[in-house]
TrEMBL record:
It comes from the Eukaryota. Residues 51-129 form the RRM domain. This is U11/U12 small nuclear ribonucleoprotein 35 kDa protein. It is found in: Nucleus.
Length: 242
C-alpha cells in the first residue's frame, strides 16, 4: 500500500489489466499476449519524448493543419506527426505533437484533454512509448484505456487510473472450527457427547421394541383364551337349563 499510485510508474500488463493493480494471474488472452510480447519502440521516431503529447480518438477527417490550429494556442509547436495507414494513407485516429517548451506541453496536457475537434472528444496524454519502462502497445494486448465492448480494459493511465485497493480485515469464522483451540475442543466434545446420547437412545429403543411385540402378542393370546372360556361356560348353562 505504501508504493501504491493511481498512475503506473512502470508498465506491467498484468497490473494494467487489474482495476486496482493487485491481480496475480491473467484473466484474458490479451494480457497473456502482452506478457509474452517483446516490444521495442520505433527507432525511426525522432524528437524529444519528454516534450511530446499523445493525441487520440481523433476524427478520421482531422488533418495536420487542424491539429496545428488547435494546439498552437498552448505554445510553439516543433513537429506534428499524424499516424496514417502505410497502404491507404488514411488517418488512424491518433497523432503525436512535440512542443518546444515544457510549459506549453503541461498546459496542453491540462487543458486540451476532452476537447472537441471535428465533433470528436479527443484524449490527450504524455507520450509513453519511449518514456514508460516496459511499455506494450494496445495492438499487442497492452496499452491503457480501452473499451468494455472490446473486452480489453486497461488501468493505470490518465483515462482510467487505478482504484485504491480495499484492505479487508482477516476475520476467521468459528462456524467451521477456525477459532481458538479451546473452542474447537469444546465443540468436538459437545458433538461427541450428543452422538453418544443418540446411539444409546437408538440401542435402548431397539431393545424395547421386541418386548413390546411380545407383550402385544401375549395380550392377544390371553384375550383369545378368556373368550374361549366364556363360550364354554355359556354352553354349560344352556345344557343345565335343558
Amino acid at each position: 500500500m505504501n508504493d501504491w499510485a493511481p498512475i503506473a510508474k512502470e508498465y506491467d500488463p498484468l497490473k494494467a489489466g487489474s482495476i486496482d493493480g493487485t491481480d496475480e494471474e491473467p484473466h484474458d488472452r490479451a494480457v497473456w499476449r502482452a506478457m509474452l510480447a517483446r516490444y521495442v519502440p520505433n527507432k525511426g521516431v525522432t524528437g524529444d519524448p519528454h516534450l511530446t503529447l499523445f493525441v487520440a480518438r481523433l476524427n478520421l477527417q482531422t488533418t495536420e493543419d487542424k491539429l496545428k490550429e488547435v494546439f498552437s494556442r498552448y505554445g510553439d509547436i516543433r513537429k506534428i506527426r499524424l499516424v496514417r495507414d502505410l497502404v491507404t494513407g488514411f488517418s488512424k485516429g491518433y497523432a503525436f505533437i512535440e512542443y518546444k517548451e515544457e510549459r506549453a506541453l503541461l498546459k496542453a496536457h491540462r487543458d486540451a484533454n476532452r476537447l472537441v475537434i471535428d465533433q470528436h472528444e479527443i484524449f490527450v496524454d504524455f507520450e509513453l512509448e519511449r518514456t514508460l519502462k516496459g511499455w506494450i502497445p494496445r495492438r499487442l494486448g497492452g496499452g491503457f484505456g480501452g473499451k468494455k465492448e472490446s473486452g480489453q480494459l486497461r488501468f493505470g493511465g490518465r483515462d482510467r487510473p487505478f482504484r485504491k485497493p480495499i484492505n479487508l480485515p482477516n476475520v476467521k469464522s468459528d462456524f467451521y472450527g477456525e477459532g481458538s483451540a479451546e473452542k474447537r475442543k469444546w465443540s468436538c466434545e459437545g458433538t461427541r457427547e450428543w452422538r453418544t446420547r443418540d446411539r444409546d437412545h437408538d440401542r435402548s429403543r431397539d431393545k424395547r421394541w421386541p418386548e413390546r411385540e411380545r407383550s402385544w402378542a401375549w395380550g392377544d393370546s390371553e384375550r383369545e383364551r378368556d373368550s374361549k372360556e366364556e363360550r364354554s361356560r355359556g354352553r354349560e348353562r344352556k345344557d343345565g337349563d335343558r
